[in-house]
Design a protein that fits this description.
The chain is α+β, with helices and mostly antiparallel strands and 157 residues long. It contains 1 helix and 11 strands, in the order αβββββββββββ. The strands form 3 sheets. It has a 5-stranded mixed sheet with strand order 1-2-9-7-6, with no helix packed on it. Strands 5-4-10-11 form a 4-stranded antiparallel sheet, with no helix packed on it. Strands 3-8 form a two-stranded antiparallel ribbon.
Length: 157
C-alpha cells in the first residue's frame, strides 16, 4: 500500500513538473505571437487611414510641380517626407529624384494650406521636382509615402 502511495505521489509530482515546463515554453511564444499580430494590425491601421490624391501636375521647362492632397484621416509628420519616393517614367526615360538633394534630380515640398509639423487631412502640399532634362513625352508620376501608400497620375510635356 505504501508503495502505491509513493508511486502515485511521484507520478503526480512528475505530471506537475511536466505541465509547468510545457506552460513555461508555450506562454512566451504565445505572447510574442500576440505582440507580432498587434504590430501588424497597427501598421495596417495606419495604411488604411492614410490616403492621398494627386490633384494637379504641371511641367515648366525641366521642372514638374505636383499638388497632393491628404484625403485620409492620418496626420502625417512632415519629417517623414524624407522617407517618401517619387518616380517619373516614360517609354524612354526614368527618374527617381532624391529628397532635398544638392544636385538634380531632386525634389522638395511646401505645405500650401496648413501649418505645424504635420500634414493633416484636407491639407495640400506642393512638390517641386527639378530634373536636368525633361523631353516632350507622356509620363507616369508615382508618389509613394513612407508607409507604401501611393498616388499616381499621368502628365504630358
Amino acid at each position: 500500500m505504501s508503495n502505491e502511495v509513493i508511486t502515485t505521489s511521484i507520478l503526480v509530482i512528475a505530471s506537475v513538473v511536466a505541465v509547468v515546463a510545457f506552460i513555461s515554453a508555450v506562454v512566451p511564444s504565445v505572447n510574442e505571437l500576440s505582440r507580432s499580430y498587434t504590430s501588424v494590425a497597427n501598421e495596417m491601421g495606419t495604411e488604411v487611414r492614410t490616403d492621398i490624391d494627386i490633384i494637379f501636375v504641371s511641367s515648366q521647362g525641366n521642372n514638374v510641380s505636383i499638388w497632393i492632397k491628404n484625403v485620409g484621416s492620418s496626420r502625417i509628420p512632415l519629417s517623414y517626407f524624407g522617407m517618401s519616393d517619387i518616380f517619373i517614367a516614360s517609354s524612354s526615360n526614368y527618374w527617381h529624384p532624391d529628397f532635398e538633394s544638392t544636385s538634380n534630380p531632386t525634389w522638395n515640398y511646401t505645405l500650401e494650406n496648413g501649418d505645424g509639423n504635420t500634414w493633416d487631412s484636407g491639407e495640400t502640399i506642393k512638390t517641386i521636382i527639378e530634373l536636368d532634362n525633361l523631353p516632350s513625352d507622356t509620363y507616369k508620376l508615382n508618389f509613394v509615402l513612407y508607409n507604401g501608400v501611393s498616388g499616381s497620375d499621368i502628365f504630358s510635356k
